[in-house]
Amino acid sequence: MSKPETLVSVSQMTSAIRNALNLSNDPHIGLRLGLGMRITTYGVYGFALLSSPTCRAACQFAQKYHALTLPMSDQLFTETNTHGIWSTEPNASMVSDLQLYIFKVEHILGTIIAFAKDIIGDFQVAAIRLRYPEPSDSSTYRQVFNCPILYGQPANELMIDTALLDRTPRHAHESTFSAVQRLCDDMLGKMATSSGVAGRLREIFMESAGRFPPIEMACEHLGISARTLRRRLASEGVSYQTVLDETRLNLAKRYLLETGLTMEEIASRLNYSDASNFRHAFRRWTGKSPVEFRTG
After folding, report:
1. Are the CB atoms for 129 and 159 separated by under 8 Å?
2. Confidence class of residue 70 from pLDDT cuts 50, 70 and 90?
3. CB-CB contact of 246 with 44 (8 Å)
4. Which CATH number fits domain 194-295: 1.10.10.60, 3.90.110.10, 2.60.40.1910, 3.30.470.30?
5. Model pLDDT, residue 153
6. Is the pTM of this model over 0.70?
7. Cα(128)–Cα(205) distance, rounded to whole angstroms?
8. How far is 136 from 277, CA to CA, in rounded Å?
9. Taking each helix axis from N to C terminus, what angle separates 275-286 and 240-258, rounded to the nearest 10 degrees?
């Protein structure tokens, strides 16, 4: 977990959340974790938020490029005459029970507050609306949010006064914001090319932590037959093997350029039986050996 190159799947994250809830004896650990987040954790996305010309621009940016954070929930920012409103709804396919649901809502609300403090310093929530019933002990909510809290509402919402939206972030810099926004546009564009069944297959490979599933298991996950999968992939101009090879190549490049992992360790993480097979595959893909790619 201490290694930055470690990949964590959704199922592993869910297991970690359950373990945290069971072992911490803290029903609001999701909220506390969210409050401990820092905007710089999110790389280019966080840098853009920090350099936004106004808080309104930061909120609009956060919604537009929300997909870059790869969350387990949907987010929406809207504005009325009196309030800016962040709505959040955990993904039902990833959050299977109320305990996980509350964890994700709390974590997101805590993260929004933490990010807002990083952006503008002092920050006050106007109101909180929650879909679920009031907890048996809601004192933590009252202490953290310090605002009216309504339960059993149609949506999970964090509301702020519109006056806050016109404020200038502490590190606002329009030219920097524009440059970083272009980078995020490029990133979204690359994500858009990964749509369709090929995109869903890539997601399965990325979540498998290097133990790439055989086609039968991938089909079971996608809910389609192997014949249907092959036909759909062919219509998108790819095959199961080309998507697998592309995923392996992208991960291999990251490991070679961003980590100090040995060839044996990289081969293992890419599900090769030994380093020799990995070297042959990498040369076939790039025309270079892994060592040449890393040092060149």
Report:
1. yes
2. low
3. no
4. 1.10.10.60
5. 96
6. no
7. 38
8. 57
9. 100
